[in-house]
Amino acid sequence: DQAMYRAKQAGKNCYQIFDAEQDRHTRSRRDHLNRIRQALENHEFKLYYQPKVNMRQGRVIGAEALIRWNHPERGILAPSEFLPLINDDVLVKLIGDWVIEAALAQMEVWNDEGLNLQISVNVAGKQLQAPEFVEKLKAALFLHPRVAHLLEMEILETAALEDVAKTSRVIDECRALGV
């Protein structure tokens, strides 16, 4: 049935072959994506903060937000176990937005306690290239005005190279927002 439907979608005068291995792979990927989406909805993701230390001055100058998945059955999972699965999915933007919001919220808590640290977050290429990225960032910063200037973004080189002109424009817009 799947081969027949793919052949119909491809147009007239063609055929498709059902590949059981490809079907298993597709189903497995879909199941993993659904589970990651569920993890986001269930608040299973958590940020850990790795300090950035100025060794000359001997003091902490900031931190990098590192996402982890607190999986109910498998425990704490490193990003390498789930981020590659979402690189080509809308989930990469949803989780990226969550990371920015969670980091800003944590910065506010620390700010209330007298700790003003610059926090850097990693931004995926698909998130950065999304047309709504700057507007979503602006909205998140608006909700956390006292710490908005402390947010730093790290952009993967591969993301920046996909569309240099657009990336430069987005970076300029982020700088104008104080990021």
What this model shows, in words?
With 179 residues, the protein is α/β, with parallel strands linked by helices. Helix content is 51%, strand content 21%. It contains eight helices and five strands. The protein has helices at 2-10, 20-41, 83-86, 91-112, 125-129, 133-143, 157-162, 164-176; strands at 45-54, 59-71, 75-77, 118-123, 151-155. Strands 1, 2, 3, 4 and 5 form a five-stranded mixed β-sheet that branches. Strand 1 and strand 2 form a beta hairpin. Helix 4 runs parallel beside helix 6. The longest helix has 22 residues, at 20-41. The chain is elongated and about 70 Å long. The mean pLDDT is 88.
Give the arrangement of secondary structure elements:
Elements: H1 2-10, H2 20-41, E1 45-54, E2 59-71, E3 75-77, H3 83-86, H4 91-112, E4 118-123, H5 125-129, H6 133-143, E5 151-155, H7 157-162, H8 164-176
Parallel strand pairs: 2-4, 4-5
Antiparallel strand pairs: 1-2, 2-3
Helix pairs in contact: 4-6
